[in-house]
Specification:
Layout: H1 2-5, H2 7-31, H3 34-47, E1 53-58, E2 64-67, E3 82-89, E4 92-104, E5 107-114, H4 116-166, H5 182-232, H6 236-267, E6 276-279, H7 280-297, E7 301-306, E8 311-314, H8 316-333, E9 339-347, E10 350-357, H9 364-369, H10 389-399, E11 403-407, E12 418-425, H11 427-432
Helix pairs in contact: 2-3, 5-6, 6-10, 7-8, 8-10
Length: about 425
């Protein structure tokens, strides 16, 4: 671009001046005789202070008539009207840019400019551009080298951490600087990812240990009963009862595995394809009616307060299962004559479903772990269950972009009871997300 705007402009200006001068002389010849043309040429030579203008008028017989060139150059006998040739002027070799004009009748005219000075200027400009380009290339290479070194130095801790993690050292983390730049944000994100991976791995180990611990007892019990029945059953009826009890124990184990698989499926987001607009109010009324009968059979009371028009976008079956799990837990821990409350309402662009009981409640420390697979508080050790109910509720809430929290039903009372609240985005918020 610099060359085009400087050296190229000089060449174009020179050619434009030559062409304009030649056109003016041709007009003079057309409007007058040869004498007028000769006078015009001599006037131009006399007014040329810089001695750059070149002219040569030649008669049909080749005789020089006017101008400051001595002879017609051999190069001007070709087909091209433009030519650039070396010349000897005042004992000095120079360069000339010439334009040939045929005047008719054998008369010929050369109009040109001495471009030696412009060529020297162009040479200096070319040399300057070459040095500038070389310097720019050297600076670019040096800058690229320094930038690469800087990037390698900043990314080296990431490489080392990734390599250590690849060898199995899950305790390594990316060290962060005080700059707070993109590399620190990358390192922080990577550390958060590693923390999450470590937490999930710890959860997997915990689930494995819990499965081995919690299922060992029912499996051993079922095996012992079957062996006892096989060895000491007095009749077919006793043997059948033992087999039925063993089948029931195995069904309970199968239900635990099904619950674990369902939680894993929900946490993986596999059920998101089943999302559709749904009104929870009719479903909650049906569940409340079903569990009211169960509560009455236990001499308990279910108090349901369900608002209309609780619409959202989600998996209706999973949400129903979550509410059922909450009611199962509430009825399990509520004493005889107690009350279980089911509340569902729209609040602040969300749907809140709360299940409260009159049971022993849960300490604050246990609430932090509630929802972990197979976790059971000390107050629940004596009651049947596998510790997977709240795990499914939390997984369903996370799948729908909601949250679950636990609180005392009666703050400061003894027993305090427990209220579990499930908050889910309403239809508008879900559809936007």
């Amino acid at each position: 671009m610099l060359w085009w705007n400087t050296a190229g402009t000089l060449d174009r200006q020179t050619e434009a001046a030559i062409r304009a001068d030649a056109t003016a002389l041709v007009e003079r010849r057309r409007n007058g005789d040869i004498g007028d043309l000769i006078g015009a040429i001599e006037d131009r030579i006399a007014l040329d202070v810089q001695n750059e203008s070149l002219y040569l008028l030649v008669a049909p017989n080749g005789t020089r008539i006017a101008g400051n060139l001595s002879t017609w150059p051999p190069e001007a006998r070709g087909e091209s009207a433009w030519l650039q040739i070396p010349l000897q002027r005042d004992g000095t070799e120079t360069e000339a840019r010439l334009f040939r004009v045929e005047l008719g009748g054998g008369w010929r005219l050369l109009v040109g400019r001495d471009v030696a000075e412009k060529l020297r200027l162009r040479g200096l400009l070319s040399e300057g551009i070459a040095w500038a380009a070389a310097s720019s290339a050297a600076l670019a290479l040096l800058g690229a080298f320094l930038l690469r070194r800087a990037l390698e130095n900043r990314l080296r801790p990431v490489y080392r951490t990734a390599a250590a993690i690849g060898t199995g050292d899950m305790t390594r983390r990316v060290p962060l600087s005080d700059r707070g730049d993109e590399f620190d944000r990358l390192g922080g994100t990577m550390n958060a990812m590693l923390d999450r991976i470590a937490l999930l791995m710890e959860g997997v180990r915990g689930v494995s240990d819990a499965i081995a611990h919690d299922l060992r007892t029912p499996i051993a019990r079922a095996r012992a009963k079957l062996e006892e029945a096989l060895a000491s059953a007095r009749d077919e009826e006793a043997l059948r009862a033992a087999l039925e009890q063993g089948i029931a124990d195995l069904d309970g184990i199968a239900r635990v595995f099904q619950a674990v698989l369902r939680i894993a499926e929900v946490e993986a987001g596999a059920r998101r394809a089943a999302f559709a607009p749904a009104d929870l109010s009719p479903m909650l009324h049906d569940i409340a009616e079903l569990y009211a009968a169960s509560a009455e059979a236990r001499e308990q009371h279910l108090d349901a307060e369900i608002a209309d028009g609780l619409t959202l976008v989600g998996d209706r079956d999973l949400l129903g299962q979550a509410v059922v799990n909450l009611l199962d837990n509430a009825l399990k821990f509520t004493p005889d004559g107690g009350t279980v409350r089911l509340r569902a309402r729209a609040e602040g662009g969300a749907i809140e479903i709360a299940v409260s009981d009159d049971g022993p409640g849960m300490p604050e420390a246990d609430r932090q772990r509630a929802g972990e697979r197979f976790f059971r508080a000390d107050t629940a050790r004596s009651t049947p269950g596998s510790g997977l109910g709240l795990s499914l509720v939390r997984a369903v809430a996370a799948l729908h972009g909601g949250a679950v929290w636990l609180a005392d039903t009666y703050a400061g009372a003894d027993p305090p009871g427990l209220t579990v609240t499930l908050r889910l985005p309403a239809a508008a918020a879900s559809s936007e997300g």
